[in-house]
Amino acid sequence: MMPGIPKHIAIIMDGNGRWAQKRNLPRTRGHLEGVKRVEEIVEASRVMGVKVLTLYTFSTENWARPRHEVSMLMRTLVIIINKKVRSLSKAGIKIKFIGQRDGIPTAVLKVIEQAESLTVQNQGMVLNLAFNYGARTEIIDAIKQIAGDVKNNRIKLSHITEDLVSDSLYTKGLPDPDLLIRTSGEKRISNFLLWQLSYAEFYFTEKFWPEFTKEELKKAIADFQTRERRFGNIASKT
């Protein structure tokens, strides 16, 4: 790992549709351009030594988008995973999906599970895809799991700690993000990793996701390297 590189980068890939609309193109074209950036950023992150890259791929709210757009996104996901999974695996990348699996189309779920199975033994960068994901739902699921364990006498109330909650989330076993990047100029986290982002540094850029190249990623990391991360402590003396 290069000095100062975040161990875990999380990205809200925003602005595909607006990028396309500004060019009088269909929104679906924006999503296709966005796929190219995913490939570029995954490879750049791997080369720089990022340990975990989490991409906000499809939220629980995204099902409300126009049906043809959702269908196109599902088809694109299946095609891209089938096309890239073996090369990603050869590069040592471990693919993980976080989110609810109920409600995902059967064909999509099959491809997701195959990608996870094929790369499960890999020891390189974790490519963590938040799909059918919502942070509030994630936290509710964790609460239900912990409450069930208390009810069935598997744990006591006194056993409930931050570590236990973290281990009950979809991201169990992964470090919390050091850096959150959001493209397109929006400055909110949109129900993404609400628990895990507690001490992350935030970086917002006006670039739409199809414009977010590896050079833009380097700018975000350079900005991160100027931050003093205190985790609630006072500033260090110079």
What string gives the helices and strands in order? Answer: EHHEHEHEHHEEH
Cα distance, first to last residue? 26 Å
Mean pLDDT: 94
Helix proportion: 40-55%
Tally of DSSP helical segments: 7
The largest sheet is:
6 strands, parallel
CATH architecture: 3-Layer(aba) Sandwich
Question: Could you say which overall geometry the principal axes of the C-alpha atoms support?
Answer: globular
Low-confidence blocks of residues: none
CATH topology: Undecaprenyl pyrophosphate synthetase
CATH superfamily: Decaprenyl diphosphate synthase-like
Q: Which class of secondary structure composition applies to the elements?
A: alpha/beta
Widest beta sheet: strand line-up: 3-4-2-1-5-6
The fraction of residues assigned to DSSP E strands is 5-15%
Features:
238 residues, alpha/beta, Undecaprenyl pyrophosphate synthetase, 6-stranded parallel β-sheet, 7 helices, 6 strands, 14% strand
Can you describe what's shown?
By secondary structure, the chain is of the alpha/beta class. The protein has one domain (8-134, 179-224): Undecaprenyl pyrophosphate synthetase (3-Layer(aba) Sandwich), CATH 3.40.1180.10. The chain is built from seven helices and six strands; from the N terminus they run E-H-H-E-H-E-H-E-H-H-E-E-H. A six-stranded parallel β-sheet has the order 3-4-2-1-5-6, with helices on both faces. Helix 4 links the parallel strand 3 (94-98) and strand 4. The longest helix is centred in the N-terminal third of the chain and has 24 residues, at 67-90. The protein starts with 7 loop residues before the first strand and ends in a 14-residue tail after the last helix.
